[in-house]
Design a protein that fits this description.
This protein is α+β, with helices and mostly antiparallel strands and 244 residues long. It has 7 helices and 4 strands; from the N terminus they run E-E-H-E-E-H-H-H-H-H-H. It has one domain. Helix 4 packs across helix 6.
């Protein structure tokens, strides 16, 4: 496995009266899958861990000065602060494996970037999405996110079983995880709402939270839509049973 940083580059070419070109380079540590942060950035006071931490936050304020997720949102907020959410932009996401480009609204593309930053922020709850950050899919739909998160969760259970740790395969833990994420997003929104100028940041976070809020019910009700995709496994099993 390469020990070089995993680099994901986003470029926003924003239209409108004042065309804007913004670029971001996210570097992930290949071992921890956490973001390699620029040393020059100091988060604002509202991002401090003791300034509105989530009720269930496991981090110790004596060891951590800042909420990891709030710190990365503050950094993005400084850059996107003046942009309006419905501004049209051509956004290109480039990684070692592929380049994906889409013309969409700033808020939708920023939602994808925010999710990536937050998963790699160092938050111990959001860190469960680090495997999805490693295999990032820009601009994913609700169905794609559900498929990827369920697959990632079940693969985690496989490795937990191999390690002799408690595991479960009925996805109750994934629903509970998204409920935690919803609580985190609500707390971040409270911090963020009064500390950003334009509406692109807060609306992108709201879009991200729609996924977290909707996915527990989707896990219960909508996984059936994927059932026909796996008919090949059923047919293979039947063929094997008939083979003398």
């Amino acid at each position: 496995m390469s020990m070089e940083p995993i680099v994901i580059h986003y470029r926003f070419e924003c239209e409108g009266d004042n065309p804007t070109d913004l670029s971001f380079e996210l570097c992930l540590d290949p071992e921890t899958l956490e973001r390699i942060r620029p040393e020059s950035y100091t988060p604002p006071e509202w991002a401090r861990l003791d300034n509105g931490a989530c009720a269930t936050c496991p981090l110790d304020t004596s060891k951590y000065d800042y909420c990891p997720a709030a710190a990365v949102l503050a950094e993005l907020g400084d850059i996107f602060g003046d942009l309006i959410s419905y501004t049209t932009a051509t956004v290109t996401a480039t990684s070692e494996d592929r380049t994906v480009s889409m013309t969409t609204t700033v808020q939708r593309a920023l939602r994808s970037l925010m999710g990536l930053y937050m998963a790699a922020s160092g938050c111990p709850v959001l860190g469960k999405f680090k495997p999805m950050a490693r295999f990032h899919l820009p601009f994913s739909t609700t169905s794609e996110t559900l498929f990827r998160s369920a697959g990632s969760y079940l693969l985690a259970q496989h490795f937990l079983r191999q390690r002799g740790e408690p595991f479960e395969f009925d996805l109750k833990g994934l629903s509970a995880l998204y409920e935690q994420v919803h609580v985190i997003n609500a707390g971040l929104a409270r911090r963020f709402r009064h500390n950003t100028k334009g509406d692109a940041n807060i609306n992108a976070l709201a879009l991200l939270d729609l996924y977290a809020h909707a996915l527990p019910n989707a896990i219960k009700d909508n996984l059936a839509e994927f059932d026909p995709l796996f008919d090949g496994y059923v047919e293979t099993g039947r063929i094997a049973e008939k083979t003398p």
